[in-house]
Structures are given as C-alpha cells and as structure tokens.
Amino acid sequence: MSAFEEGYAFFAKQAGVQIAGFEGGIYVGQVDNEIEKLIHDLNAFEGFKTKPDMLKGDIAEFWHSDTFNVNAVARGTASRTFVDRSHDFASADISSNFGKIFGLKYYKDGVESAKQQAKSVFERFHEYRASGGKDSLEMFLEKRGFTDDAVLHDPIYYGQIRVIPKDQLETACEWLRRKIATESVIRPEQVERYKETLTRLSDRLSDDLGTESVPLSEADAKALAALAKEGDVTAEELKQLGISADEVIRFEYLAKEAFKSGLTAATISVVLNVAPEIYKAIDYLIKNGDLDEKQFQRIGFAALKGGSEGFVRGTVSAAITIACKSGMLGAAMKNISPSIIGMATVLAMDTMKNAFKVACGQMTRTELAQELIRELIVSSSALVVGTVVQAFIEIPVVGFMIGSFIGSAIGAFAYNCGYSAVMSFCVETGFTMFGLVKQDYTLPEDILENIGVDVFKYEKFIPAPFRSNGFMPTAFQQKQFEPNTLGITVLRRGVIGVAQIGYV
Predict the structure, then answer these.
(1) Is 221 in contact with 164 (CB distance < 8 Å)?
(2) pLDDT digits (tens, 9 = 90+) for 288-320
(3) Taking CA 443 as the corner, what is the angle to CA 438 and CA 444, rounded to the nearest 5 degrees?
C-alpha cells in the first residue's frame, strides 16, 4: 500500500476508538459539572447570618436536589429535580420533570420532623393566629385557595413526598404508626392525614426508576450549613459524604456508557472501512458498465470486520477513559488525555492479536516487532499532529480527528521511507539492527540445484512404492553428445521477507 493508504487504514482503525474515548471523557465531565454545581449552590450561602441549626433545612434542599441530579447524570437518565425557593403556602421545596414534588423538614428529632410533615390546615391556622394573624378562618382558607372547611383536617403538604433526615426516618415512622392507632379510637377524622404522611415519608428523593438523592442526616446537614456560611464546602468534604465521580459512577453505569460509546465506534469504523470499497465498486462500474459480485463481498467483509473490531476497541477505550477520568484508578490518572488512552488501546489490542498469530504460527516474532514499531511511529505522528490541529480548530473532537488523519498519513510515509533506508543499509553492511533484521546466508534451493548440489527435501520425502520385477526387452537408444559448458550465476543480497535479508 501507499503511505496514504496505510495512513488511512490506521486512521480507520483508531478513529472510532478516539470518538469513544472522548465520549467517555464527556460523560465523566458531565458528572463532575453536577458535583461542581452542588458545591456552588452550598457555598452560595456564604456570609449568611442565619445559624447553622436554622440554615440546615435550606442546605438539605440543595443537597437532595443536586445529588439526585448527580446520580441521574451518572445513570444516564433524563430525570431532573429543581429547588423552587417558593414561600407560598404549603408550596413544595423541590419540583421535578417526572411529576413528583417534594417537601423537606429537618428538625431536631424524628418526632418533631414527622409532626411538621403531618401538620393539618387547621393546625397551621392556629399557628397563624398565635403569631398575630387577624384573618378569620374563612378568610384564611379563601386566601390560600380553599373553598370550604372540609380541608381542615387534611395535611397541608398533601400530595408531596415528605423528606426528613435519614437518621430520623425509623423514629418518625414509628411515631406516625402510634398516632394512627391512637387517633383511630379518639379522633378518627385525624387518622387519614397521618396515614397519608406515613405512606409518603422518605429520607431521599426518588423517581421510582432507580435514580435517588443521597440521604443526609440532621448532623451532617448542620455541619454542611456551618461550612457553607464560610464558603468552605469543597470536593474533599463532599467525598467524605459519598459524593465524587468515582463514588457515584458504579460499574454498571460505566459498562452502560462504554457500550454506548462502543456502538458509536462501531458505526464510525464501518463507515470508514466500507468507504474505500464502495469507491472501488463505483470506479469499476464507471469503467466497465457493471458491478463485480466479489466487490459486494468485500464491502460486506469490510463492514463486518470494521463493526466488530470497532465495537470492542471503542468499548474498551471508553471504559478505561471513564475509569481514569473519574478517579477510579487513582488521582494521578485523572488528567490523562482520552486521545492517549485511545491510541494505547489500539496498540495494545493489535499487539495482543498479533501475539496470538505468532502463537498460532501465522506470524513470526520479527514481523510482530516490525508491526509494533510501525504502529508506534504512525500513532505517535497521529497523536502529535492531531493535538496541534485541535489547538487551531477549536471544535471539540473534530480538530483532533482531522489532525489525526493527516498525522497518520505522515507517519506511514515516514515509516516507509525510514524502513527502506534501514533495509538498504542492512543489505550493504550486514547490520542486524540489534536483532530486528534477520540476516540469512543460506543459499536458495534453486541456486543449489543449478550448481549441481542434490537437495534432499526431507520434509517432502515420499518412500518409493514396491514394484514387482517384470520382463522388459532392451531397446536400442542412441546417446546424444552434450558439450560441457561453463555457467556463471551472480548472487546478490536483498530483502527476502519482512525484515529479512538473504541471497536473491
């Protein structure tokens, strides 16, 4: 192949892998962005004069909403929640795009949190009057959208999911069960609001499809409030509470995203592998007026090979990228470039494939070494040129892919030129390039036979079959005279195989 064709072949092999790696990096970046939003929302309370014991409820709202969104991004779902910051009567603290609303109460203990969540409309009216309110019951209800007093015993947070601290949930549920049992005898009209509260009580947000917020205790909420007042909420603080990319990105999420990226890589690989074959088919059609059946076979094989290899390589590249960028493999690997991971994936998997061929006798060790050197040179050139072009073309991924294609062609050309020069030098000098070039001084069999040496091919030896003696009359044959001649065969040394020099 020409240098261009070799460069294109390498580009077609690694383009999908690169895209898959970038997609893995983007996925981790989205998770990190949601974590950064949580840090920003909490530190937005910097300078507040409110005491931590009073501020903890506001902190809990952003904690639950933002951690839900962190997990939603990690799981790859479209569910999202929003802190409304509404002060209307009985308004929800958190809304969502999946139809649920949530109300939070973070009081000193489970009993008090449960009481607040189960509070009735009539109880709220009494609080209103106790604080100096002048409206009558009828006016109080009318201003809050109620048409009659049938709602007096209803919970004011009816329809909301009631969220309380995780360390209070058990106590709160037990208190509600006791209230239901007691009120069913004393005040049956009060039972329903306690039942409704119990069925909707939780320590987290949930979309009932697997995405949830991270439960938060009352003590942790207070501690976060103290940090938020000083603007000291950091990634390290959140990591201690289980919020970091390596904590929220579970293996099943990693596998899901890796498979998605693998499908993308497979699609790109199919297109790039099939394109040259389609071009050849069209060119043949123009020149000959019909299509060659074998060309359709080659198109099919190219699609099958490109799709399968692209999927495997892309999946592996994306998985490694996600693991590195999320911190699963240590802090030192978080800043590694997805392009480097992609190149390393291609080299590693090609080397594994070639090593298997060596084990099966389909490739020599010298050929494996030469192939590895070639791919190292081409991949390095693709990586360098891709990085340079990306600096000028700021469109994500596109600039790198254009540069990578150019770099692959340049690398293939450089390798071919260098390989030819090295082999010429080895032919002239007998140099082995530290064992990479095999120098074979065995005379070819045709030359040995030409100079009169009887070559015994033991590997092809077939014993003569037994034949019985028979009578054959002797016939007279005239012998022909052949004069002796002097034949001269000039030997020269040249390339007889991959990185192999001998007599030709």
Answers:
(1) no
(2) 776 666 766 776 766 777 677 888 888 888 899
(3) 95
* CA neighbor of 53 nearest in space, from 168, 225, 229: 225
Structure-token pair, residue 111: 């009993």
Q: What is the mean pLDDT of residues 23-52?
A: 93
Alpha-helical segments (H) within 231-250: 235-240, 245-248
CB atoms within 10 A of CB 491: 11
Q: Which two tokens stand for residue 110?
A: 């489970």
- Taken in order 428, 430, 434, 440, is the CA torsion positive or negative? positive
Cα separation, 417 vs 420, in Å, equals: 5
The DSSP bridge partners found for residue 95 are: 82
The CA distance from 24 to 321, in Å, is 6
CA dist., res. 307 & res. 64, Å (int) = 42
DSSP 3-state assignment of 62?
Answer: helix
Nearest to 449 by CA among 489, 485, 486, 502: 489
- Pairing between β-strand 438-439 and β-strand 493-497 as defined by DSSP bridges: unpaired
Give this prediction's pTM.
0.77
- The tokens of 471 are what? 């009578």
Do 268 and 86 form a contact (C-beta atoms < 8 A)? no
SS3 category, 357: helix
Q: Distance (Å, rounded) from C-alpha 496 to C-alpha 371?
A: 17
Q: What is the pLDDT of residues 206-247, one digit of tens each?
A: 999 999 999 999 999 999 999 999 999 999 999 999 999 989
CA distance 435 to 252: 46
Segment (H or E) for 438? strand 438-439
Rounded Cα distance between 356 and 26, Å, is 34
Burial class (CB in 10 A: 0-12, 13-18, 19+), 286: exposed
Q: What is the pLDDT of residue 338?
A: 86
Q: Cα–Cα distances in Å, from 339 out to 21, 322, 382, 392, 407?
A: 7, 13, 10, 17, 13
